[in-house]
Specification:
The structure holds 2 protein chains of 2 kinds. Chain A is of the alpha+beta class. In chain A, 46% of the residues lie in helices and 16% in strands. Chain A has an 8-stranded antiparallel beta sheet with strand order 2-3-4-5-1-8-10-9, with helices on one face. The two termini of chain A are 16 Å apart. By secondary structure, chain B is an alpha+beta fold. In chain B, strand 1 and strand 2 form a beta hairpin. The chains are: A alpha+beta, B alpha+beta.
């Protein structure tokens, strides 16, 4: 049934290099258009002019790239929530009340936020650890935009951004990693500190620090000024590659003493298969345990794609869109368990490939 | 830098006095700032600023001069350094010149560098209408409609349309 399919965006497609540890790589470039006040200081009239100027200037690029223009003032709340959960817009842009928009690719591989904290926030997503290709795509996209809009740029300080933590390259590379073995063996704090020494920031993908829900973390470069894009990219690649090796080494140790991880994975499968109430946090934690068991071949099913589909439906916006209306938290938890069972029975697959 | 009053303690506070129509600034230690009445005791026009709070970092020791937080507003957008300290967001590209010295300290702390070594963008092949011009016209149009000067409004609307069309060809 077409209605039941759950399409996975690029960031959750589960392909790409090192995808046993790395979910996805996101590259973001912060840019501002010359001649305008920065977004947080604009009045409504200027914000409106900026959005219109950008809309018109980028129309040809949007056509070439197959990007859809969404004026966020006209997008209903539930759809905006889904865009947040797809990582195509930030929570700040969703909740802001100034004129604002986003250009989005249907496959979720690229987008451009208009009038977030900066006038333009170009984003490119790639499955797995693929900063090289994501950066190349983002820089290409950026070059095209620079042909039609003049950027606020200084030869001394680089791209001028509203917050000094983005000045210079305006480049932030973020990698979403799954580190269940480092958490389980309590090596995570050591690993986090080592990464921070390499001038990278590590934080929980949901929540903070070592209490990261579902053992999901985000690693990103701290600095944007004084290093070239290539240097930032290589430093981040080095840091994440080290983290991937560390996590794999810890996972391998479970092969010699599989009982605990095998037990946890099967319990997780049991709960996901039979529970009638599932909160998002519980679901994300269960997915983590089951995913580790799957990757070590301690459980034969479900597929990693189906786990990612469940992951998507842990998010309230996606779940509510399935039924086309807003739900109370209790209703969501009940419906979530229904959909999880449906996915596990193979009734909600994506495209046939 | 030492306190400019006692010449002993490290200066952590910038005291501003209104002398005639000019703000005169001095770097002082906390004790001397209090002695100066900067806590609001004697002179209500005296202002103190605690630079130790810039983005949550340590005390700043910037010399007075171009781009220090002398209370001047940015000529581009009217933002003051105090406002920036509150919002942590600059107002416009010109703020980078206005607050240059203070920003360099922030860059040294959070970026450990003050020079860009990355990409230099190309310039647009076709220039869009200057946004400031369009914005000014939009504002004038708004006022004209509000004040029911409809002939003027129609003229402004045509001008905006003409300018907006101009960059399509």
């Amino acid at each position: 049934m077409a209605d039941d399919t759950i399409q996975l965006d690029e960031w959750l497609s589960g392909r790409g290099p090192e995808s046993d540890v790395v979910y996805c790589t996101r590259v973001r470039l912060a840019r501002n258009v010359e001649g305008f006040t920065f977004s947080p200081r604009q009045d409504a009239a200027e914000a409106d002019t900026l959005v219109q100027t950008v809309h018109k200037a980028l129309a040809p690029i949007a056509r070439d790239h197959g990007l859809r223009w969404l004026d966020l003032r006209e997008v209903p709340g539930l759809e905006r929530q889904v865009l947040v959960e797809r990582h195509l817009i930030s929570r700040e842009l969703e909740a802001s009340d100034r004129p604002r928009a986003v250009l989005v690719a249907e496959d979720g591989r690229e987008c451009l936020m208009v009038n977030e904290e900066d006038h333009l926030r170009l984003q490119v997503f790639r499955s797995g650890l693929d900063a090289q290709s994501a950066c190349a795509a983002a820089e290409g996209f950026d070059d095209e935009v620079a042909e039609v809009l003049p950027y606020a740029f200084s030869s001394r300080l680089g791209f001028l951004t509203s917050c000094p933590t983005n000045t210079g390259t305006g480049l932030r590379i973020s990698v979403m990693v799954h580190l269940p073995a480092l958490v389980l063996t309590k090596e995570i704090d050591k690993a986090t500190m080592a990464i921070q020494e390499m001038n990278m920031t590590v934080r929980g993908f949901f929540g903070e620090g070592s209490h990261a829900v579902g053992d999901l973390f985000q690693v990103s470069n701290q600095r944007t000024l004084g290093e070239s894009e290539e240097q930032i990219l290589q430093a981040l690649d080095r840091a994440v590659s080290a983290l991937v090796r560390w996590e794999r080494k810890q996972r391998e140790e479970f092969r010699d003493r599989p009982l605990y991880v095998e037990d946890q994975a099967n319990r997780a499968l049991g709960v996901l298969t039979h529970a009638r109430i599932l909160s998002s946090e519980e679901t994300i934690n269960l997915i983590s345990k089951l995913r580790l068991g799957r990757l070590l071949d301690f459980v034969p099913e479900p597929s990693l794609e189906d786990l990612n589909r469940i992951f998507l439906l842990t998010q309230p916006g996606h779940l509510q869109r399935k039924v086309g209306r807003e739900l109370l938290p209790g209703e969501r938890d009940r419906l979530r368990s229904e959909w999880v069972r449906r996915i596990l029975r193979g009734e909600a697959g994506g495209d046939a490939d | 830098m030492r306190c400019q009053i006692c010449q002993k303690n490290p200066a952590t506070i910038h005291v501003l006095d209104l002398v005639g129509t000019e703000w005169v600034g001095r770097w002082t230690c906390e004790d001397c700032a209090r002695g100066e009445g900067a806590d609001g005791g004697q002179d209500p026009l005296k202002v103190i600023k605690f630079f130790g709070q810039i983005l949550g970092g340590q005390a700043a020791t910037a010399p007075l001069g171009k781009g220090t937080a002398s209370g001047d507003a940015c000529p581009g957008c009217g933002m003051t350094y105090e406002q920036f300290q509150q919002t942590k967001r600059l107002g416009c590209p010109r703020c980078y010149e206005t607050f240059q010295v203070d920003l360099e300290q922030i860059f040294m702390r959070v970026q450990e560098n003050v020079l860009h070594r990355g990409k230099v963008p190309g310039r647009p092949k076709t220039a869009p209408p200057t946004p400031l011009e369009l914005r000014r016209l939009h504002e004038q149009l708004g006022r004209a409609v509000e004040e029911e000067r409809f002939e003027e409004a129609a003229r402004l609307r045509d001008k905006i349309q003409e300018l907006s069309r101009g960059d399509e060809g």
